[in-house]
Amino acid sequence: MALTASGCSSSDDAKNDPRSDSTATGGTPGPGASGTAGGSTPAGLTGALGRIAATPAAKAYLEYADLAALRAANGGTDPAGPYGRLFGIGFPALVNSVREVPAAYSFDPMRADRAWSAGLAPDSASVLIGAFDTKAVEGALVEAGGAKEPSPGAGTTWRTAPDGAVDLQSAKLPGVLAAFNVVRLADDRIVHGPSAATVNAVDAGGADTLGNNGPHRVLADCLGETLVAVIAAPGTQKPAPVAAPLTAVGVRGAKGEAPTEVLCVPARDAAAAEQAAGKLRTELAQGVRPDGRPWADVLADVRVETVGTTVRVTAHPAGSRPAGVLHQALLQGALPDMSSLGGS
């Protein structure tokens, strides 16, 4: 499932992770930088939200990564680095085969500037922003049996399989299943997914996007300038869903700085936010996770505050733990119970 494939490999597996690469990429604006790095899409999570159509799938689950800033903060793509577990967020369908993608499709997801994805498999798609050799990618798609088809907007659309088709015996790259059924190429981006509808939705623009959707924009503002972010609705986390309408987690940081974990959850009103903030302070200081480990063992310097009707938690990973504590807790359904917030 896409959730378990995203980023956050365990530290025990880090040394053998196929994403490992110690080469850093510098000179790229940090997260949330102004301007239009990588093309016409404004930088940051809010820029990505302005491209994602407000479909039910996108409202339920999305990921964002400023990969250029993440590489700079981590000193490269080594998964054993302080931010190394975060690589893979933004392109979940490719993460388990990321080493093979460059040879198979003539581009490297790990070298993109930014990435975002919307929806959960089988209805998810991703956008990779950066400088790509589109002619080489087109050649790889032809080798995969791809053919051009009409595009609804800018760029060239290629199809290698029918919508939703899954070929477990694909000679090109079996590990990605349907991720390259439909691919849209432009000078600054590669958009890929299992169907035309998912590709169209993840890079749509226009008025009806998550950038104009109240709860998602509020959570993006709450998270602030992050290297990565995930916004998830209840039922998309496993094994036990977090009982809150939406939950957002992210990581802030830079090279030489301790990662800052961020958690944001909307409440039904300011009073509910204040009440929930008090409960969260107690839980994170004295409570234990579902695995029996005290929260104080995995998070340090915890701060819980309210921002209007939103509760925000910031903390540092305890001890020598790498970034991604709250992201991993979200995917495992291990975040504190926030059912009393009643957000929307």
Short summary:
Residues 1-11 have a biased composition (Polar residues). This protein has 344 residues and is an alpha+beta fold. The chain contains 11 helices and 12 strands.
The helix count comes to 11
Low-confidence stretches: 1-39, 238-243
- Give the radius of gyration: 19 Å
Name the helicity range. Answer: 10-25%
| SSE order | HHHEHHEEHEEEEHHEEEHHEEH
Number of strands: 12
From the spread of the alpha carbons, the general shape counts as globular
Which band does the percent of strand residues land in?
15-25%
Going by helix content, strand content and strand pairing, the class is alpha+beta
Mean pLDDT: 85
The number of domains is 2
Strand count, sense and barrel status of the largest sheet are: 12 strands, antiparallel
Widest beta sheet: strand line-up: 4-5-6-7-3-2-1-8-9-10-12-11
Determine the N-to-C terminus distance: 26 Å
Structure description:
The chain folds into two domains: 2-202, no CATH class; 210-332, Gyrase A, domain 2 (2-Layer Sandwich). Helices cover 24% and strands 19% of the residues. It contains eleven helices and twelve strands. The chain has helices spanning 2-5, 44-49, 56-60, 67-74, 101-105, 134-143, 196-202, 214-223, 270-286, 295-298, 325-332, and strands at residues 61-65, 114-118, 125-129, 147-149, 156-159, 182-186, 189-193, 228-232, 247-252, 260-266, 299-307, 310-317. It has a twelve-stranded antiparallel sheet, with helices on both faces. Strand 9 and strand 10 form a beta hairpin. The radius of gyration is 19 Å and the shape is globular. The two termini are 26 Å apart. Mean pLDDT is 85; it is low at 1-39 and 238-243. Residues 1-41 are annotated as: Disordered. Residues 1-11 have a biased composition (Polar residues).
